[in-house]
Amino acid sequence: MKLDFSGLESSAPLYGGNNGLLCDGFSDAPSFDLPVTSDFDGFQKNSIQMVKPAKGTTTLAFIFKEGVMVAADSRASMGGYISSQSVKKIIEINPYMLGTMAGGAADCQFWHRNLGIKCRLHELANKRRISVTGASKLLANILYSYRGMGLSVGTMIAGWDEKGPGLYYVDSEGGRLKGTKFSVGSGSPYAYGVLDSGYKYDMTIDEAAELARRAIYHATFRDGASGGVASVYHVGPTGWTKLSGDDVGELHYSYYPVEPAIVEQEMTEAIVA
Amino acid sequence: MSIFEYNGSALVAMVGKNCFAIASDRRLGVQLQTIATDFQRIFKIHDKLFLGLSGLGSDTQTLYQRLVFRHKLYQLREERDMKPETFASLVSAMLYEKRFGPYFCQPVIAGLGEDDKPFICTMDSIGAKELAKDFVVAGTASESLYGACESMFKPDMDHEELFETISQALISSVDRDCLSGWGGHVYVVTPTEVTERILKGRMD
C-alpha cells in the first residue's frame, strides 16, 4: 500500500544561489531582484513585520459531555483600523470538523482548505474518515515546514471521530497541543477568565453555548481588536451545527440593560444677549 | 503603535446656527485593552467655552489642569471670562513652550465668542492652530471622522439637527476604530443652554 507523504513534503522554495549573469533561466529557485537598500536584514525584518498581522481576534473551543463547543468573534483589524466586522473565523473543514482562524486571514483560509482536501483524499484512499489527531498532525507538519517564513496561523481543530470529541491547538511556530479547553488571540485572556470560572464537564448544549457566547462577549468588550458578531458552533456525533451568531453590540445591552439615570437639570441665570 | 494611539480617543466639534456641538468617545485603553468606559475628554472652561483633549490620557489631564489654573487667574485679573479666540492662543502658546518635549495631546476648542458667534479650532501637539468654519476632528479615529463629517455636515443647522449629525458622525467613525468608542459624550451649546448627553454605542 502506497502511503501518502504529500502532507510531509515541503513546497517551500529551495534557496539556490542567484548567479546573476551566469543564470539564464535554469536556476531551481524562483528569485527576485534584491531591493536597493543599505540595511537589507532590517528591511527584510520590517517587511515581514508589515505583512505579519497581529493575532487580533478571540476564538475559543472546549470539550464537554455533549461534544465540542467552538466560538469566535468576527472582527478583522489592520493596526487601529477595523477592516471588517463580518469575517467568518470558524472554518468548516468538512461536515464533522471545524477549524478556527486567528492570525493571518489568508494563511488560515488557505491552509484549512488545503487540510480539507487532504482529509478527503485520506477518506477516499483509506475508506474511512480521518481522525482529528491525524488531521491536526497533517496541518502541524505543513506549518512546521514553513516555520520562520512569516506565516501567521493560530488555529484549533475541533471534531468528532471514533474516539469521541477531539480538540487540538496548532500554530504556525509548529506547535501542536491536545487539550480540552483553548482560547486563541489577543482577546484570549479575557475569554479564559470567563471560561475557566464557568466551565463544568457536565453541561447541557444550551449551557455550554451560553458560556461560550458570554466568554466571546467579554473578550470583545475588553479587547479592542475583537468585536462584531459572536458565532457559536457545536460539534456532536453527527457533525457540526451552527447554534447562534449574535451581534455583540446588542448582546451588551441584553446582558447589561441601561437603567434610566436621574437627569440633573441645572437652573442658572441665562445671560440674555 | 505611536504614543498618540496608546490610550485611544475620538473628538469632533461642529458649528451650527448660533450654536456649536462638541463630542468625544468614552474609552480609556492601554493599547488594545480597555480599562475604562467613562473617561472624560471634554472639559468646561466656562459656560460658553469647552475644551476637548485627545491623545495620551495623562497629558490631557495635566494640560487641562494647567489651563484651568491659567483661566482662573485671568478671571481674577480681568473680572470676566476669556474669549474663545484668546483661549486658543493661550493653548497654542502653552503647547509651543514644550516644543522639544511636547504634551502628546491634540486639543479641540469650541466656544461662543462675541455676539454668540460660534468658534471652533484644533491644533497639533505643538500648537499649530487650525481654524475651521464647519467642523474639526482629532484622535485615533480622525480619518474616519473627516470622511463622516464631510458627508454629513450642512451649514446653519439648528441645535437638534446638529446633535443628530454630530452623534451619527461620531458613532459611525468610532465603529471603524479599534481604539475608540464604547459610547459617546455630546455637549450642545446655545447662547441660553448647555445640553449634555451620553450616547449608547457598540461596546466592542
UniProtKB/TrEMBL annotation, chain A:
<dbReference type="GO" id="GO:0005634">
    <property type="term" value="C:nucleus"/>
</dbReference>
<keyword id="KW-0963">Cytoplasm</keyword>
<keyword id="KW-0539">Nucleus</keyword>
<dbReference type="InterPro" id="IPR016050">
    <property type="entry name" value="Proteasome_bsu_CS"/>
</dbReference>
<dbReference type="InterPro" id="IPR000243">
    <property type="entry name" value="Pept_T1A_subB"/>
</dbReference>
<dbReference type="GO" id="GO:0005737">
    <property type="term" value="C:cytoplasm"/>
</dbReference>
<feature type="active site" description="Nucleophile">
    <location>
        <position position="57"/>
    </location>
</feature>
<comment type="similarity">
    <text>Belongs to the peptidase T1B family.</text>
</comment>
<dbReference type="GO" id="GO:0005839">
    <property type="term" value="C:proteasome core complex"/>
</dbReference>
<dbReference type="GO" id="GO:0051603">
    <property type="term" value="P:proteolysis involved in protein catabolic process"/>
</dbReference>
<comment type="function">
    <text>The proteasome is a multicatalytic proteinase complex which is characterized by its ability to cleave peptides with Arg, Phe, Tyr, Leu, and Glu adjacent to the leaving group at neutral or slightly basic pH. The proteasome has an ATP-dependent proteolytic activity.</text>
</comment>
<protein>
    <recommendedName>
        <fullName>Proteasome subunit beta</fullName>
    </recommendedName>
</protein>
<keyword id="KW-0645">Protease</keyword>
<keyword id="KW-0888">Threonine protease</keyword>
<comment type="subunit">
    <text>Component of the proteasome complex.</text>
</comment>
<dbReference type="InterPro" id="IPR023333">
    <property type="entry name" value="Proteasome_suB-type"/>
</dbReference>
<dbReference type="InterPro" id="IPR001353">
    <property type="entry name" value="Proteasome_sua/b"/>
</dbReference>
<dbReference type="Pfam" id="PF00227">
    <property type="entry name" value="Proteasome"/>
</dbReference>
<comment type="function">
    <text>Component of the proteasome, a multicatalytic proteinase complex which is characterized by its ability to cleave peptides with Arg, Phe, Tyr, Leu, and Glu adjacent to the leaving group at neutral or slightly basic pH. The proteasome has an ATP-dependent proteolytic activity.</text>
</comment>
<dbReference type="InterPro" id="IPR029055">
    <property type="entry name" value="Ntn_hydrolases_N"/>
</dbReference>
<keyword id="KW-0647">Proteasome</keyword>
<keyword id="KW-0865">Zymogen</keyword>
From TrEMBL, chain B:
<keyword id="KW-0963">Cytoplasm</keyword>
<dbReference type="InterPro" id="IPR029055">
    <property type="entry name" value="Ntn_hydrolases_N"/>
</dbReference>
<dbReference type="Pfam" id="PF00227">
    <property type="entry name" value="Proteasome"/>
</dbReference>
<comment type="similarity">
    <text>Belongs to the peptidase T1B family.</text>
</comment>
<protein>
    <recommendedName>
        <fullName>Proteasome subunit beta</fullName>
    </recommendedName>
</protein>
<comment type="function">
    <text>Component of the proteasome, a multicatalytic proteinase complex which is characterized by its ability to cleave peptides with Arg, Phe, Tyr, Leu, and Glu adjacent to the leaving group at neutral or slightly basic pH. The proteasome has an ATP-dependent proteolytic activity.</text>
</comment>
<keyword id="KW-0539">Nucleus</keyword>
<keyword id="KW-0647">Proteasome</keyword>
<dbReference type="InterPro" id="IPR023333">
    <property type="entry name" value="Proteasome_suB-type"/>
</dbReference>
<comment type="function">
    <text>Non-catalytic component of the proteasome, a multicatalytic proteinase complex which is characterized by its ability to cleave peptides with Arg, Phe, Tyr, Leu, and Glu adjacent to the leaving group at neutral or slightly basic pH. The proteasome has an ATP-dependent proteolytic activity.</text>
</comment>
<dbReference type="InterPro" id="IPR001353">
    <property type="entry name" value="Proteasome_sua/b"/>
</dbReference>
<dbReference type="GO" id="GO:0043161">
    <property type="term" value="P:proteasome-mediated ubiquitin-dependent protein catabolic process"/>
</dbReference>
<comment type="subunit">
    <text>Component of the proteasome complex.</text>
</comment>
<dbReference type="GO" id="GO:0005634">
    <property type="term" value="C:nucleus"/>
</dbReference>
<dbReference type="GO" id="GO:0019774">
    <property type="term" value="C:proteasome core complex, beta-subunit complex"/>
</dbReference>
<dbReference type="InterPro" id="IPR016050">
    <property type="entry name" value="Proteasome_bsu_CS"/>
</dbReference>
<dbReference type="InterPro" id="IPR033811">
    <property type="entry name" value="Proteasome_beta_3"/>
</dbReference>
<dbReference type="GO" id="GO:0005737">
    <property type="term" value="C:cytoplasm"/>
</dbReference>
